[in-house]
Amino acid sequence: MGCQCKMKPEEKEVLSSIFRFVLKNGKCPTIEELRLSLKRSDEEIIHALYELERKDFLLRKKGTQEIVSIYPVSLKPTEHRIFLEDGTRLFAMCAVDALGMPIMFNKNVRVVSRCEECKSEMVFEIKNEEIMFASHPDATICSPKRQVYPAAETCCPLVNFFCSWEHAKEWIAKNSELINNINPIVSVQQAFPKIKTCWKRYGEMLGFR
Fold it and tell me: How much is the pTM?
């Protein structure tokens, strides 16, 4: 996971600026917009982007400086929607990211997703770093495959929510060719403390906490 990778101060500054721009505008900034906000040269910014991409925090469109992915925020719609208190809507790359982003950004949010098996809507309200409401108390997360890197490119599309253990097992039975984890299912309540620890560290590193 990217939150465990070390960054230089200038890389943290650029990445934090990108996230703040995304939180405000719902899209990534251009090099020019980064230059204006950071008061740094294009060369410094491009070098920082290169290092951040190498460390799997973001992905640029090949041959350009256009940022097309910034872990854990998806710039394309996904099933994992994050609603901030000010009405801003973001998309998470996967179920784990959906639960981690409120901690990372130190925000109270409403997470709206779907069960990958039955497609029923699932809602989680996270306030003060705790899950205060879960529409499905027995919700689980299934990670059928071990993480494939780079995460900013693959966007972990198979890490999803299920409304119950039964539905997770039913999905696995129908998709056995995708399974290479020994224990692919974990309850949301069991997974959340570990998610919280990791994403809190990520948010602190970037100055959001």
Answer: 0.88
What phi and psi values does residue 72 have, to the nearest 5 degrees? -105, 10
Dump pLDDT digits (tens) for 115-163: 999 999 999 999 999 999 999 999 999 987 655 555 544 456 789 999 9
Please check whether residue 145 is in contact with residue 178, taking contact to mean a CB–CB distance below 8 angstroms: yes
Residue tagged 């101060």 (tokens):
9
Gap between the Cα atoms of 63 and 61, Å rounded: 6
Contacts 24+ apart (CB under 8 A), 61-67: 65/30, 65/31, 66/28, 66/30, 67/18, 67/28, 67/29
pLDDT per residue as tens digits for the range 56-83:
899 898 889 999 889 899 888 999 999 9
* Per-residue tokens: 91: 């998309």
CATH number, domain at 142? 3.30.450.410
Q: Count CA within 13 A, CB hemisphere, residue 4.
A: 5
Instruction: Write 147-150 long-range contacts (CB < 8 A, 24+).
Output: 147/1, 149/56, 150/56, 150/59
Query: What's the domain range around 51?
Result: 2-73
- The answer on pLDDT for 26 being more than 90 is no
